[in-house]
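Handout, section B. The chain below has 548 residues.
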Amino acid sequence: MLNVFTYLIFYFYIFLVGRGFYFLINKVFNKSKNNSDNVVIFNLPIKLYYPFLGLFGIGNVVFLLNFFTGVNNTIFNIFLFLLTVLFNFRNYEFFDNFKSFSINFILIPGFLAVSSLNIGFARDAGGYHLNFQNWLSNKPVTSGLYLLNPQYGYTSILDYINTIFSIGSSYILLHYVNLVFISSILSICLFALTENKNINYKIFGLMIITFGILDNFGFNGGKNGFIEIDSVPKQDSAFTIISIFLFVIFTFILDESNFVINKIEFTTICSLSFFAFQLRTLGFLYYLLLLYVFFKSQLYKDYKSYIKPMVGFLIFNILWLIKNVLMTSCLIFPVKQLCFKSLPWSNIELVAFSSNDLLRNWHGAYNFGSFTDWFNRWIQNQINLTFSINFLISLLLALFLLSFVSRFRFKFSKNYIILFIFILLNFFFWITTAPAVRLGNSIFLNFALLMMLCVDADLQFSNKFKSVSIVFLLMVSFSLPRFENYSQLLENSMFVNQLRVEKVSYIKNQDFGVSPIDGVSCWVNISCKNKGRSAKLINDTFYNYFIP
């Protein structure tokens, strides 16, 4: 049970960190002394954004600091603690009532926390994630780092967030970070189904509940593209959650006949779009929707009011791209057309290898040949077949459920065409780069949401229906952890999973450091590079960098 209790504390702590960041930003940039939780952003209370804001703030402060130094997790955690103390203990408006608090901060995260008992490391944890986080802890951004391991080019903002939560030899807090994303989106669904009156949010909540329940049934036992609890420290579900949250916000904006976006809403949507891009390169497509909204709502006519968030958004994107160039020689790795060939650490052959062998070939990407032939090969993978069948069944059942509780009549506006084109663009980049099901969950869930929104629903939820929605949402939370976790809890309630790394044997290299015996899993050793890679450390007067 200790893992459950510690996650409940961790989740509430991240909530307070996000709240602290919000009040700090509000005071510094808006000169406001009104620290209130009653602010509404896109028809949702600000408190629902706090956990996301907490993780986004942590990751980007670490990201900025790493340009100058390694990020010591002890010092950084002291900073976060002071942030929560200075900006949180003034009012407690986020406690609406005990029922809301118990569901959002105890029941939902409590069920999810049971997954901690049997959670393990992902295959890529020892391959590059944990060792990259070790570099962040000990060294400033290092030019040419990808020469030690090309997969360092695939790291995301989640690695920056996780850097400060590696406490001693235990990595269980990295799992808690992933759970924060899931806990938050389910809390948003709870609000959408029980308190929000906007139809887009209600249908979003219905979609999450329907797919979440049906994910446990169906062909080969189920798996329909719903959110999963990732092994440590994958970012697949984190990106999926931020992506579908962004998508439902855009549907809300575009469904408003004369929508007006205020300054804080514009800052929020810019931040979430940047967060999606930092989690996965595919997130840059949200910038297209952002541009469409910017011109559609005629924000450019009053651009002076939005100059601060626009400048901040531009600066952070430039810095993120600079970081990419320093590490990999590419603006976006591994797109060789966006790489600089003249930098000392450039290695276009390694970039091509990363693009083809490590990305496209590994995931079976479409190569612009016969789509039918490619799809026949893709569907032969049992995971892909299972997902395809169960997703279609779940979508049909979701539409049937929606027609059952409301009138069934399709609507299709011009703005929905924009969203449909957006999904097609996502699908195109997905199948031509890395068409693994886990990497495309956001695309298919967004498609399901758009199809449900095309039903001209008129939902009037009674109190009884709201109560039923809460029960089903708790069922989704309960069913997300594997049931073996509950067995483990019943058999040994005192068991604590600290999630420690494996011990690795290394061999010394002639050019730099050591390599693991197995050739690929460095785990946690910044003197380690993949076996067979060529990299030499250059100690310059001002900074160090690697060359091929």
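Note. Residues 7 and 176 are 6 Å apart (CA to CA). Compare this with the example in section A.
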